[in-house]
Design goal:
It contains eleven helices and ten strands. The protein is α+β, with helices and mostly antiparallel strands. Helix 3 crosses helix 6. Bound molecules: flavin-adenine dinucleotide (FAD). The site of flavin-adenine dinucleotide has 23 residues, from strand 1, strand 3 and helix 11.
């Protein structure tokens, strides 16, 4: 077993870290306060190939592997988790499934503008009545001679107000309830209207909107994969996507740990640095250990996906564990900073607010446990939508 990164992976990691320190970290507090989506940043990321890092060069990407992409998400999220999720959804929830399930024509048409960062991607599955139970979705795609007319509402769509390409799921067979009547479509930004930008606990530099599709007509060339097989597209997409969210969690936890460690070596009370108190040492030891463990779970899942091996269980374990680590240890970082941790003088309160979402989107922690339990018990049937 080789745990070292390849020269290319190390180079991409270093390049992203440098960019994040120069272009993201200095602005993250302001974007958070102003709840501002930094649209201009994604052009800069695109110039460095980071909007399509794991997309093959022939489709406009940087041609690196999936682990390199995961390293990018970790580094971006270490500086700003909102930027991390924008890139994560764009890449692993839109560009990658089009590459995997698309026809040659669809791949050549839809992927390069995404990989080059000329367009942002959005993934539209969730609806008001269909969250964890995504197979209950109601958005309709009514067939006619030359395609479908799509009508429906989607909720909490990351990038939905800025995207030029949507991977959207709709019911093509109204007679078949549940997952089997669902198909996947590639829509343009002008097929979709954003209706409401949500105010959130954290992740303020990421845009999360509700969208409506009101009778948009799409041709047969917009169907991704086979009719009625859209749910499989969604599940395979989330299998990979949640490895990215786990990397986001590791990035947030690492950022909180870095600040807590530095503070413990500086802050003096009772005539000592607080890092000399065993209570603080043990917190830092636990943080460091669990962040390492989370990162290794993420790398393992990414490696399995890269090799084309089954990674559903490994990805679910990585997300379940890493998101818990991020939530717990961002709270511990606040504790180590005492009163300062609770103020906006330091970014740990932002990390704490940002960390929570990693236990919710791309499948909640309860759903990850269901996925893991089903896998270890050999229960293959997909009874739970996001599994
Ligand atoms: C900031 C943000 C960004 C998002 N981005 C996107 C996006 O880009 N695209 C998209 O399609 N969606 C997106 N979502 C939606 C997200 O994926 C869902 O919120 C998530 O899957 C959970 O669905 P829900 O919120 O409806 O919760 P519910 O499904 O209503 O769950 C509520 C609670 O019940 C639990 N629960 C549900 N079913 C079970 C069960 N069978 N067993 C045990 N517990 C259960 C859940 O774990 C949770 O604790 C986003 C959400 C947020 C908040």
């Amino acid at each position: 077993m080789d745990l070292s990164l390849t020269p290319e992976q190390s180079e991409i990691q270093a390049l992203t870290r440098e960019l994040a320190q120069a272009e993201i970290e200095p602005h993250a507090a302001e974007w958070d306060r102003q709840e501002r989506f930094p649209r201009e940043l994604f052009g800069k990321l695109a110039e460095l190939g980071l909007m399509g890092v794991c997309i093959p060069e022939e489709y406009g990407g940087a041609g690196a592997d999936f682990l390199a992409y995961v390293l990018v998400l970790e580094e971006l999220s270490r500086a700003d988790a909102g930027v991390g999720v924008t890139v994560a959804v764009h890449t692993s929830a839109v560009a990658l499934p089009i590459l995997l399930f698309g026809t040659d024509e669809q791949k050549a048409r839809f992927v390069p503008p995404l990989a080059r960062g000329e367009q942002l991607g959005a993934f539209a599955l969730t609806e008001p009545e269909a969250g964890s139970d995504a197979g209950a979705l109601r958005t309709r795609a009514d067939a006619d001679d030359d395609g479908w007319t799509i009508t429906g509402t989607k909720q909490w769509i990351t990038n939905g107000a800025h995207a030029g390409t949507f991977l959207l799921f709709a019911r093509t067979d109204p007679e078949t309830p549940g997952a089997r009547g669902v198909s996947a479509f590639v829509l343009d930004g002008n097929d979709v209207q954003a209706t409401k930008e949500h105010e959130k606990l954290g992740l303020h530099s990421s845009s999360t909107v509700d969208i409506v599709v009101e009778g948009a007509h799409v041709g047969r060339d917009r169907l991704l994969h086979e009719e009625g097989k859209g749910f499989a597209v969604a599940m395979v997409t989330l299998d990979g996507g949640r490895i990215g969210i786990a990397a986001q969690a590791v990035g947030i936890a690492q950022a909180a740990y870095d600040i807590a460690r530095a503070y413990a070596l500086e802050r003096r009370q009772f005539g000592k640095r607080i890092g000399e108190f065993q209570a603080i040492q043990w917190k830092l030891a636990d943080m460091s250990t669990e962040i390492d463990a989370a990162r290794l779970l993420v790398y393992r899942a990414a490696e399995l996906k890269q090799r084309g091996e089954p990674h559903t269980e490994a990805g679910a374990k990585a997300k379940l564990f890493a998101s818990g680590v991020a939530r717990r240890h961002t709270a511990e970082a606040i504790q180590i900073l005492g009163g300062y941790g609770y103020t906006k003088e330091f970014p740990v309160e932002r990390f704490y607010r940002d960390a929570k979402i990693t236990e919710i989107y791309e499948g909640t922690s309860e759903i990850q446990r269901l996925v893991i339990a089903r896998s270890i018990l050999g229960l293959r049937e997909r009874t739970i939508a996001r599994g």
